[in-house]
Amino acid sequence: MSVTLGDHGSLGDHGSLGGNGAVPVKTAPSGFTPLSRRRTITDDAVRILVLGSVLLALVPLVWLAVTLISKGIGPILDLEWWTRPQIRGGAGNAIIGTLIQTALAAIISVPVGIFVAIYLVEYSDRKSATARATTFMVDILSGVPSIVAALFVYAAWRTTLGMERSGFVVAIALVLLMVPLVVRSTEEMLKIVPQDLREASYALGIPKWKTIARIVLPTALSGIITGVMLAIARVMGESAPVLILVGSTRAVNWNPFDGSQQSLPLMMVQEYGKGPGAFDNVWGAALTLVILVAIIYFGAKVVSKVFSPKQS
């Protein structure tokens, strides 16, 4: 297209930049075909379907949250809720037992799960018998019900070894439930770390173990912590292991290796067995457990942000 510039900055016959500096109207490039009406309608329909699915998924979540808060907020706002003996020592006693049992399970499960995931992603040959056997066992453990894990630990701990029930035995059962979740989440996070980062580190002469420790793990740290917290949230509310492997107590027991130890799941089961009159205590214990999980989760996310690589 030929353009001629006049004395006053005007374009020729094909457009102008008048004194007000107006920009020429843009036209569609040659060969451009607008979306057909059918494709536009299909796109809008899919958008509405996706939005409807999201809203539908939020309905039970919001309903659960509203019900849990409305029914459980009353008991936990009562100061006697934390100590009164009518609910077997109060929620404070149950919280202590829950945290101790879950912490023991996490101390064992998190390192084991992360090391297994590192082996599968960084060191193993996928076709080797060891890698295939490890993957198979992780898949099997992922589907094991909590009652089966509790019965297995009971048979091994009580029947075979003749040991007493305790909070530590509960932690062992929780380990069986937690390890496969940690392995799977860590494995997926390590896979999405760009291979270029590893190769750049190797090119600088850095050993593989140091590359994993200084480059790969910090890069995937946020996702790993999220997976670990999902695993902790799952095992923290398990009731089958505490019903089979430990007894309840009114007294606070800080020693998980000796004697009975209360926990929030055990407290909920006991209060539910008392009938409708004790349902407020059940809702209060449930809300307490959810708040406890939320506090731990957000605390872990803060830690992950502090130690994750900073974006430049």
TrEMBL record:
Alphabetic keyword roster: Cell membrane, Membrane, Phosphate transport, Transmembrane, Transmembrane helix, Transport
Domain of life: Bacteria
Domain ABC transmembrane type-1: 95-304
InterPro entries reported in the protein's UniProt record: MetI-like, MetI-like_sf, Phosphate_PstA, Phosphate_transprt_permease
Coiled-coil segments on the chain, per record: none
Annotated membrane topology: Multi-pass membrane protein
Function comment: Part of the binding-protein-dependent transport system for phosphate; probably responsible for the translocation of the substrate across the membrane.
Descriptive protein name: Phosphate transport system permease protein PstA
Taxon lineage: Bacteria, Bacillati, Actinomycetota, Actinomycetes, Mycobacteriales
